[in-house]
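Collaborator request, handled under Task 6.
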Amino acid sequence: MSNRSGVAQAGEYQFKECRIKSSSGAKFNIAERLIVSMSFYESIFSNTFNGLIEIVDTANLPTNLPITGQDFFEIKLITPGIEGESIIDHVFVINQILSRRDVSTGAQSYVFSLVSPESFRNNRTRVSASFTDVNSNIVKNVMRDLNLIASNKDIFIEKTNGLRKHIVPNLRPFDFIRRLTRESTSAKSNN
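Structure tokens returned to the collaborator:
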């Protein structure tokens, strides 16, 4: 981490924003010095961006905010000296406190498990509908639909061939999308 105006070494970053917003609307800014570790990851085997963050807390956040399982963790990291591009600019849902321990008198350490809001919505909604379109358009509609995933992120979907008809019997959105990917063929190639 650096407060200089330029990049001195690979992997350098600065905190622009880092805060918890509770379901009650209360906000708590997390100072850079309170963060012990953080990791963010995505995988070709997962549909969403996830993370873990460990903080040291003297304000007893789980009780005083309170953290109830429908809270948000907002983080924005930038590369020093490069304006306009963020390394991470994301809002996560705190879905679990993985560990909690006392580190000194009046201070606790905990690890928050973070998931993208899309993952949270996927677990709370079901698709029960019929669709007639090419699979790439159906996927885009499921991702954008305010009653389903409601993602406002940039989505890159390869165009597919063939008009398809689907009747969806009460599936989670990502399970339906996974099924569509197995039945899709690219409009760009004959394979």
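The cover message to the collaborator said: "The chain has a mean pLDDT of 88. The helical segments are 61-64, 117-124, 135-144, 173-182. Please let us know whether this matches your experimental observations."
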